[in-house]
From TrEMBL, chain B:
UniProt organism field: Streptomyces lannensis
Membrane-crossing segments per the record: none
UniProt-listed Pfam families: Fer2, Fer2_2
PROSITE patterns, per database record: 2FE2S_FER_1, 2FE2S_FER_2
Sequence ranges assigned to domain 2Fe-2S ferredoxin-type in this UniProt record: 19-95
Keywords assigned by UniProt, alphabetized: Iron, Metal-binding, Oxidoreductase
This protein's name: (2Fe-2S)-binding protein
Length: 329, 176
């Protein structure tokens, strides 16, 4: 690991100013991605700004929105009674991710900003990585790509965004509150990420001197049902091969509202609008769910190692739609 | 004094950044001058001689370095020592009380919850936290919430049995 200067920020403005003053500085929150990548020699910031003591830990319901401080941990958010009651899809996505130790460290803001698990990106001995060195190529396209993405990708980069939580949050139209040196702004999470097809080296719209301060989750109607299904190579403590976040409002055998997010497939957390379009207003039947799944994944761009994800993602979605709707056949 | 990080890396940046860090470990306070890169794990092992906490993968995958920070289980390999300042740190050495080993430690011995023993301190720190979290209700729950601790010897059935015994009030001493 390269040496670095360690600075502990005491308020949000100071943290943003420290970032603005040093274009190479990085923030340190839970550390589960940042320190890992620094040990690997992938990130080499000369200055780390420890933001863990900023007053951004609170989780608060205001009206029909849940305001989650960027530094709340995954375990803290999962333990909130309101999350169990109104946001099962968020709770399940959290508890199916990582391990308890990591969830006690990892923050909600950091989770959204986590870097890809692409083994080629994480190996400094691999020269071809358009994410690390724009224009150098992509080793993953010709390599072991089982854990890679098929949506929002191209031959330039197939890196997966591996967050489960972010898949649930894009499906719920969560908002990201951002503090910059001179202004605050709010960006819908669905517009926060940049796909690898658009730009391998830019993953989101956050500027260097901007900090996520809060994630706002609009509460779904009390009648909504939701859940998260994660399919993986081992039963716990593993990244998704595919996953599905589903929220349905059902009234008299008809789907009134549908929200669908797909994980394990996108270079960004994927919102499946085309599935929602099929589901909305349709009868609650497996035939509807099969149609919805068929409508997804049509733009998939695969390499031999990722071909299996197209049918698996569709089946994952059908299964979770059945589970959430309580329909088995 | 040995600092693993500063020994291992030859750095092109000439200045080594140091910081005075005060750590509260198992009820004792230590003040150390540390390279900013030193993790809590390396500070515990190499500077304080608390070698019960193990360095397995050193990248947050195996759980061998699990300690409690303010009562919550975390990975000391992905925590900078500087980040742990002002927090209450408990290691496996801090579990043993005046009346001997912690009930979970006794249960691991009684149920043969290990083979080589390298992952055991992390397993035990995780298990103690698991019970405080109220997640030892069934074997299935124990397996799920212990999944961040890998055992290459495959002692999992006995680990689950040890935890279940303490959680259900069995064994010699069920008082936590």
């Amino acid at each position: 690991m390269r040496t670095f200067d360690y600075v502990r920020a005491t308020d949000t403005q100071e943290a943003v100013r420290l970032l603005a003053d040093d274009p190479a500085a990085s923030c340190l929150a839970g550390g589960t991605t940042q320190l890992d990548l620094m040990k690997d020699g992938i990130l080499e910031p000369p200055r780390l700004i420890d933001i863990t003591r900023l007053p951004l830990h609170g989780i608060e319901r205001r009206g029909e929105s849940l305001h989650v401080g960027a530094l709340a941990t995954m375990e803290e958010l999962a333990a909130e009674p309101i999350v169990a009651e109104r946001l099962p899809v968020v709770r399940e996505s959290l508890l199916l991710g990582a391990s308890v130790q990591l969830r006690n460290m990892a923050t909600i803001g950091g989770n959204l900003l986590q870097r890809t698990r692409c083994r080629y990106f994480r190996d400094p001995g691999v020269a071809e990585c358009n994410k690390r060195s724009p224009g150098s190529g992509c080793a993953a396209v010709m390599g072991a790509a089982r854990m890679h993405a098929v949506l929002g990708v191209s031959e330039r980069c197939i890196a997966l965004h591996a967050s489960d939580l972010a898949v649930a949050l894009v499906s719920l139209d969560a908002l990201v509150h951002i503090q910059g040196p001179t202004q605050r702004r709010t960006v819908p999470l669905t517009e926060f990420y940049i796909t690898a097809a658009e730009s391998p080296e830019h993953e989101n719209v956050l500027d260097h001197a901007e900090l996520i301060t809060e994630v706002e989750i609009p509460l779904p109607p009390p009648t909504a049902r939701s859940g998260y299904l994660k399919v993986r190579d081992r039963v716990s403590y593993e990244f998704a091969l595919t996953s599905a976040a589903v929220l349905l409002v059902i009234d008299g055998g008809t789907i009134r509202q549908a929200r669908v997010g797909l994980g394990g497939v996108g270079s960004k957390p994927w919102r499946a609008y085309e599935a929602e379009h099929v589901l909305t207003g349709a009868p609650v039947t497996t035939a509807t769910f099969l149609d919805a799944a068929e409508a997804t994944m049509r733009d998939a761009w695969t390499v031999p190692g990722t071909e299996f994800k197209v049918p698996l993602a569709r089946r994952t979605l059908v299964r979770e739609l059945q589970t959430v709707a309580g329909v088995t056949s | 004094m040995r600092d693993v990080a500063s020994e291992r890396d030859v750095d092109s940046r000439s200045t080594v950044n140091e910081r005075v860090v005060t750590l509260d470990v198992n009820g004792r306070t230590y003040t150390l001058r540390l390279d900013t890169r030193v993790t809590l794990l390396d500070a515990l092992r190499d500077r304080l001689g608390l070698v019960g906490t193990k360095k397995g993968c050193d990248q947050g995958a195996c759980g061998a370095c699990t300690v409690h920070l303010d009562g919550r289980r975390v990975l000391s390999c992905l925590t900078l020592a500087a980040q742990a300042e002002g927090r209450e740190i408990t290691t496996i050495e801090g579990l043993t009380g005046a009346d001997g080993p912690h009930p979970v430690q006794r249960a691991f011995m009684e149920h043969d919850g290990f083979q080589c023993g390298f992952c055991t301190p992390g397993q035990i720190m995780s298990a103690v936290a698991l019970m405080a979290e109220g997640r030892a209700g069934s074997d299935e729950e124990i397996r799920e919430y212990m999944s961040g601790n890998i055992c290459r010897c495959g002692a999992y059935p006995n680990i689950v049995a040890a935890i279940r015994a303490v959680a259900s009030g069995g064994g010699h001493d069920a008082h936590l």
